[in-house]
Design goal:
The protein is elongated and about 75 Å long. Strand 10, helix 10 and strand 11 form a beta-alpha-beta unit. It is built from eleven helices and twelve strands. The chain is an alpha/beta fold and 332 residues long.
């Protein structure tokens, strides 16, 4: 008989872009995803907060599929069943933490045994988890659960592939806010399970001043000053710079981070040391980040001396990882 899955109280860890960039460790009390295939770099702590909002989303996604009720449920009424999940392609698994709460919305007594933790590599044909519960609940929640896990596993797999290109460079891969509406928390969790670093979860995590901010506020200095005056003191300010002049102005004005957008590797190789020297002269440090980077050029950008590389590719280009649920004839 399966042992019910351990119930975990997940604690949300806010985005810590600047701290992690300087190597500060994540809290040891947060459950961590294991290392991904081919990587010797420790994966940052990754947890998924099972908040009331997320649980309500799970209910909503189930209701979307169930409608007025599963018409096929009558065929399996009163039947107890078991099933397991299989990976149909190699990749990095993600989404297992959602399975128990999702199925328990339809069958509070469902039992789950996770055989693979989120963030672990899997091979084609590998068994991922086992379920036992009412057949009606297993059938009804199957599609919603698999859809979520396949999407998240695809992101984790794509992230791990990019992170592997940065192995040994000391440069971290960060995501962006280009996420699917309603899935941001889950998709960013998948990035962490693939070994990536979350950038801002939302506009309230840090102030990023972009082209329009700078144009409408009168420049880098006035924009940073206005944010500093209005935001809580721990808030970080990041400036997106499209030219070397903007980047230098951001450092002089005290930006905590400068996002260098669409510079070439050669341009960054020349500019990064200048910005670090300027920051040192001003008596401060600054996090330097490259964006607008094509995935195939990650290694070249990493060699420029940058701290971070941000990319939307794991979310915008990742195919789903093919998973399936197989039903077994009897409960053993």
């Amino acid at each position: 008989m399966l042992v019910p899955a351990r119930r975990i109280r997940w604690r949300f860890s806010p985005v810590r872009l600047l701290a992690l960039a300087h190597g500060q460790p994540a809290s040891s009390s947060i459950p961590a995803c294991p290392s991904v295939t081919g990587s010797k770099t420790a994966v940052p702590a990754a947890s998924l907060p099972l908040t009331p909002q997320l649980l309500e989303q799970l209910r909503s996604w189930l209701a979307e599929d169930l409608g007025r009720g599963d018409l096929s449920a009558a065929a399996v009424a009163g039947v107890s069943a078991q099933a397991h999940w299989l990976a149909k392609a190699p990749g990095v698994f993600c989404g297992g933490v959602l399975v128990e709460p999702l199925f328990r919305l339809l069958d509070p007594a469902v039992q789950l045994r996770l055989l693979v933790a989120d963030g672990e590599p899997v091979g084609a044909g590998q068994r991922l988890l086992e379920l036992h519960g009412t057949a009606a609940a297993l059938v009804a929640a199957e599609r919603t659960a698999l859809n979520l896990a396949m999407r998240l596993s695809g992101i984790a797999t794509a992230t791990a592939a990019l992170v592997a290109q940065l192995e040994g460079t000391g440069v971290r891969l960060a995501d962006t806010r280009k996420t699917t509406p309603g899935l941001r928390v889950l998709e960013k969790y998948a990035v962490r399970c693939g070994g990536g670093l979350n950038h801002r979860l939302g506009l309230d995590d840090a102030a990023m001043l972009k082209e329009n901010h700078l144009a409408w506020s009168g420049g880098v200095g006035p924009a940073i000053a206005a944010v500093r005056a209005a935001a809580p003191w721990p808030a970080r300010v990041i400036v997106e710079a499209e030219t070397a002049i903007e980047a230098e102005a951001a450092v002089r004005a005290g930006a905590d981070g400068v996002l260098l957008d669409e510079f070439s590797p050669a341009e960054l190789t020349a500019l990064v040391p200048q910005l670090r020297q300027l920051a040192a002269t001003c008596g401060r440090s600054v996090v330097l980040e490259a964006s607008g980077v094509q995935p195939e050029l990650l290694s070249a950008y990493a060699a420029s001396g940058i701290d971070l590389i941000s990319s939307s590719a794991p979310m915008t280009r990742a195919p789903w990882l093919d998973l399936s649920m197989r039903f077994e004839p009897a409960w053993a």
